[in-house]
Design brief:
With about 150 residues, the protein is α/β, with parallel strands linked by helices. The chain has one domain: Roll (Diaminopimelate Epimerase, Chain A, domain 1), CATH 3.10.310. The chain has six helices and four strands. A four-stranded mixed β-sheet has the order 3-2-1-4, sandwiched between helices. Strand 1, helix 3 and strand 2 form a beta-alpha-beta unit. Helix 2 runs parallel beside helix 6. The protein is globular. The protein starts with 5 loop residues before the first helix and ends with a strand.
Length: about 150
């Protein structure tokens, strides 16, 4: 059996579900959440996630409070990374805990559920640390991005 592609891992209908979960998570925070899925990488997952973070322009948010949920399908790797405005303020194992929740869902084949729950958990933490401001705008797309 061959490995799933990013599109098979998260079909279009599920990508829409995840985008809606991101939108809902961001309603009560000034923070920004992105999900990016790729087929395969050669380098360390955290290094590549940081590269994608920059490629998506996530470092340009006003309060430096963007969070990337990154999944590499074929290599079965994932990472959750936050910009300096959030990363310096979350508890030491927070990103690991979010990954653990995703992995439980992924192991059961519930990919969209795992990403939706991860977005919700990140959104709650962002709400606590970076509450919604009246003049807040949605600085980044909520759409799931797919790489190769």
């Amino acid at each position: 059996m061959s490995a799933l592609t990013a599109e098979e891992f998260l079909p279009e209908a599920d990508r829409k579900r995840v985008a809606e979960a991101i939108r809902m998570a961001e309603q009560r925070t000034s923070g920004e959440i992105r999900v990016h899925i790729e087929d395969h990488i050669e380098e360390d997952v955290l290094d590549h996630a940081a590269f994608i973070f920059n490629e998506l322009g996530m470092q340009r948010t006003k309060d430096r409070n963007g969070v990337l949920i990154y999944v590499c399908v074929a290599d079965r790797k994932a990472a959750v990374i936050g910009d300096s405005g959030i990363n310096d303020r979350v508890p030491p194992r927070f990103w690991h805990d979010v990954l653990s929740v995703m992995q439980i869902h992924f192991a059961a084949g519930r990919h969209a559920d795992g990403l939706c729950e991860a977005a919700s958990l990140v959104g709650e933490k962002l709400r606590d640390l970076h509450p919604y401001q009246r003049n807040d705008s949605d600085e980044l797309s909520n759409e799931v991005s797919i790489g190769r």
